[in-house]
Amino acid sequence: xxxxxxxxxxxxxxxxxxxxxxxxxxxxxxxxxxxxxxxxxxxxxxxxxxxxxxxxxxxxxxxxxxxxxxxxxxxxxxxxxxxxxxxxxxxxxxxxxxxxxxxxxxxxxxxxxxxxxxxxxxxxxxxxxxxxxxxxxxxxxxxxxxxxxxxxxxxxxxxxxxxxxxxxxxxxxxxxxxxxxxxxxxxxxxxxxxxxxxxxxxxxxxxxxxxxxxxxxxxxxxxxxxxxxxx
Length: 231
Description:
mainly alpha, 231 residues, 7 helices
């Protein structure tokens, strides 16, 4: 019996990985920025904690709704395209066969072989062949709204807990500095981990996320300090 070589490709993770990375980064950056901004304005520690928790709840709900609506729109578009393709296969099967043949010719097969491949795939699963090769829709990369919404929400909360915990445990006079430093370390770890999971450069991924997180917290701290001085 021949040995079957199985390969694990990172693209199979892209659906939940994108949502998880977005949720974790957004949770850490947005809540850390809130905490740092309010702390820089001179607010008491209790108000800082209330702001952080309120931001966590609001952000998690917004993330869940936003991801679900966005990915569901993509899923609806995919479903509409597949339904249209199914209808065309029923009405004009020969034309669809020629279309599939032309796709394979454009990818490097000669005409007779392209026709043979198109006929073979059409006889087995015509809709699947057109969905994959004409529309670019595969089972691995199909839009999954609930998966995206759940991953985003869970990882948003996980990311948001870090700056809130730092603000809770930090000395009252060092809430902003402690939260910012803790968030930056977390972002470096998140960026590196996401890059590693996706097969990209760990250092580049970590640096990219840390840069944007530091920029967001720096701007928010400046705004908080400015409005705190005015008030």
